[in-house]
Amino acid sequence: MPRANEIKKGMVLNYNGKLLIVKNIDIQSPSARGAATLYKMRFSDVSTGLKVEERFKGDDMVDTVTLNRRFVDFSYIDGNEYVFMDKEDYTPYIFAHDQIADELQFIPEGGMPDMQVLLWDGQVLALELPQTVDLEIVETAPGIKGASASSRTKPATLTTGLVVQVPEYLTTGEKIRVHIEEKRYMCRAD
């Protein structure tokens, strides 16, 4: 069993008889000597979909669950449900809008490469995205000539509706690479 300090976002824990997917981890370093680092983890309960928050010390042992991962492509929307198809055997995996609301901020129309569905015992648990995605800027303030030397930023709305801070020299219509976990601009896309 791994320690709490080895847990990463996207892993699934068996905690108090419930399967919990790690959605976010905040690390709190103590100021006192000898105190243990605390890991505040936000989870999504697999069976109910409710958000759960727990705290662990870095050396606490936690029970992880081994998952089956399948590469998928976004297929279509059916009302409030999003259907993804397995790339190998074309099995459809269906998610309710609420299950993947955070992930939808990063999925452009037509989908994106390297998306994975997490399965456990035949049950669909979550949709996992790659680390980065390339999106187009649809709305931002006009670019300022010569602003590439400054480090000031401005908000930009992307094709999916996500708003990120971008350098002042970028303009509407440019493609940028976004770090999904941190929701931040990385660079211009190729």
From TrEMBL:
Residues 133-188 form the Elongation factor P C-terminal domain. Residues 69-125 form the Translation elongation factor P/YeiP central domain. Keywords: Elongation factor, Protein biosynthesis. The keyword Protein biosynthesis applies. One of its GO terms (cellular component) is cytosol. GO terms for biological process: peptide biosynthetic process. InterPro entries: Elong-fact-P_C, NA-bd_OB-fold, Rib_uL2_dom2, Transl_elong_fac_P/YeiP, Transl_elong_KOW-like, Transl_elong_p-like_YeiP, Transl_elong_P/YeiP_cen, Transl_elong_P/YeiP_CS. It comes from the Bacteria. This is Elongation factor P-like protein.
